[in-house]
Amino acid sequence: MSHYFDAEPSSELKSTEITAHIRGKDWTFHTAGGVFSRDGLDKATSILLENCDPPEPGKRILDLGCGWGPIAVTLAAAGADAWAVDVNERALELTERNAALHEVSVQTCAPDQVPSDLRFDEIWSNPPIRIGKQALHELLMMWLPRLTPNGRALLVVGKNLGSDSLQRWLIDQGWPTERLLSQKSFRILEVKQR
Fold this sequence. Notes:
- This protein is of the alpha/beta class and 194 residues long.
- It is built from five helices and nine strands; from the N terminus they run ββαβαβαββαβαββ.
- The protein has helices at 43-51, 70-77, 89-101, 133-143, 163-172, and strands spanning 16-22, 25-31, 60-64, 81-85, 106-109, 120-125, 147-158, 177-183, 186-192.
C-alpha cells in the first residue's frame, strides 16, 4: 500500500483537477493519488491559509511537506520566494505543474537537495503527523534551525493529533512556541527562532 510520505507512490499517476477556495479566490489545482489530500484542500491547510497573512513580498518561505502545493503556490502568488519540499516525487511534480498553471515560480526539491546554507524567513506546514512522533521530531529539528534570526514557523496541527503535546515538546527543546489560533479542533502554532 502506498502512503503520501513514500518517495515513489506505487499507484498509477491519474491526475485530476480540483478547485480550492483560498482567501476569497477560487484556485484550480492538479492532484493525484499517492499524495496527501488528493481529493481537495484539507481542512487544516485551509485554516492555515485563511488565518495567517502571507509574508511580505520577497520573503523566502519553505512549504515543508508541500503535497500538491497549495501553500507554496498561493504564497508565491502573493510575492514570496517560495520553496516546496517533499519526500514524495509525485508531490513535487504536481507542485511544479500547479506553479506553472498559476504562472508563479516555486523551487521544488527533495529535502537533501536544499542548499545547506539556505535560510528561510518563514516555514509553513501542515506537518506529516502520521510519520510518527520520533520521525516528526527529527523532521522539525532538521528544518527549524534553518530559520533566519527573526524567522518563524507556522504549523497547523489537529488537537486530536497531538498539537498541545507538540507545543510543549517544542518549548522543552528551546523553541518559543505559542498558539495563534484554535479553530475546528485545529491549532496554529507559531514557532520562533531561538
